[in-house]
Amino acid sequence: MPGSAVPAPNPMAAAPPAEAHAAQVASLAQDGRGVARAGGKVVFIEGALPGEVVEFQRWRRKSNFDLANLTRVLHGSSARVIPRCPHYERCGGCSFQHLDSHAQVAVKQRVLEDALARIGKVEPDTLLSPIYGPYWGYRQRARLSVRQVARKGGALVGFRERRAPLVVDMDSCEVLPPRFSALIRPLRELVSELVLGNRIPQIEVAVGDEAEALTVRVLDPVSDVDAARMRAFSARHAVDIYLQPGGPDSIYALDAMTAQPLLYRLPEFDLSLRFEPGDFTQVNFAVNRVLVRRAISLLELRGGERVADLFCGLGNFTLAIARRGGVVVGVDGSAELLARAGENAKANGLADQVQLVAADLFKGAAALLAQLGRFDRMLIDPPRDGAQTLVHALDADGPERIVYVSCNPATLARDAGILVHGKGYRLCAAGVVNMFPHTSHVESIALFVRQNETGLPKQPR
Questions:
Q1: Higher pLDDT, 124 or 2
Q2: pLDDT tens digits for 26-72?
């Protein structure tokens, strides 16, 4: 409670003893740690919130900053809440459960605005309303670590601890769908009885709208006895099991004849997209539906525009653009994802509107864009490294509108600076997408419109 001394939510009792210090927290860093100044240095305090007065203990000293654990809250923030998950103090899966859910979104918006101003030297004309959805049970995809721990009586299955390569002793997870949260204990029991149990480092969860899958990473061949135990688990819990002996392309269904296809729907666009357990998809289907709607709205499609969807993956945005009448060229570096995108285009009756091109968008972007020809619109959805090479390659006849979907505010801000200060675009709008509630991960979306000689946005041709 504000004004009272309360225990810290994450004391990290394993930290080495150190002298406690007090400080007032000024802000939050991008990774969610509280930022304070003490002893003439910046201190990043895990678990501290802006405006709070806290006690902390340093656990690492650097030349220009220190890292610290929160030991006690002397004057708490009104946005501080009791974490819902009983494993929160140790688990590294979440970092924001001690912060009110609505305040989390506000913090992420500030992180985005700060990155745009500080790195890109730009400011959006309009701040878009945040996109958010369920705060709990939202993760349709997750990677769970596995470790045999004799003193725990067998296997542990869950997320890793904070700052440690250990697996949390957990039997539930508040951000997994309830059915998969309830499967953590049965999974522990399954791995513990497998002969191969100590050669399984991870299990990945993939939840579709009609089927669900577990992908078990195996470092040795699976015996008939272990395969039978896995099949019994699959039947008992109505979940398909896949095995992964090598890289992502080695994944195969334990029972290929009975495994159900994984898919997710975009009902607003009358689309169903099929994916494989190892494919990249957004982890939060509810938020993804709103994100796709927002992206299509910002593109302002009127029918017949030629649109580039760069880093298109399996067609998440590509098919929605095509459904709204655009002629789409989807480009991605993964031949496997492009093959899935082609299958999805055909299955949804959109093959005639979609062209798919395999290309490395981090190399030779200028030659690729020249080869593909002019686009009226462009959607960019890059990985964390952003699209620096690509935006540098845009010429004077670039698209009138660019919608940029980002999973890293820093690289979005860098690329925004290039577009605004070097390519004749205006940052008309930007906002956050709360794809990962209770984490510091910031997803965002931005709209860039090409300006004419007067500095005003150009009118569509």
A1: 124
A2: 998 878 899 999 989 999 999 999 999 999 999 999 999 999 999 99
* pLDDT reported for residue 30: 77
User: Cα dist. 160→163, 201, 214, 263, 285 in Å?
Assistant: 8, 12, 18, 28, 24
Whichever domain contains 403, its CATH number is 3.40.50.150
Instruction: Output 104-108 pairs: Cβ under 8 A, ≥24 positions apart.
Output: 104/434, 104/437, 104/438, 105/130, 105/132, 105/432, 105/434, 107/28, 108/432, 108/434, 108/440, 108/442
Which positions are catalytic?
A: 407
160, 72: one domain = no
In tens, the pLDDT along 10-21 reads 444 444 455 678
Is 91 part of a structural domain of the chain? Answer: no
What is the crossing angle of helices 101-115 and 409-422, to 10°? 40
- Counted domains in the chain: 3
pLDDT tens, residue by residue, 117-149? 999 999 999 999 999 999 999 999 999 999 999
Same domain, 56 and 125: no
In the prediction, which pLDDT does 164 show?
Answer: 85
Q: How many CB atoms lie within 10 A of CB 272?
A: 18
**pTM of the complete model:** 0.91
128 and 244 fall within a common domain: no
Q: Cα(187)–Cα(207) distance, rounded to whole angstroms?
A: 16
Domain match, 121 and 151 both:
no
Given CA atoms 36, 39, 40, 41 in this order, what sign does their dihedral have? negative
Q: What is the residue-averaged pLDDT of the chain?
A: 93
**Residues spanned by the domain of 313:** 105-134+283-450
% of the chain surpassing 70 pLDDT: 94
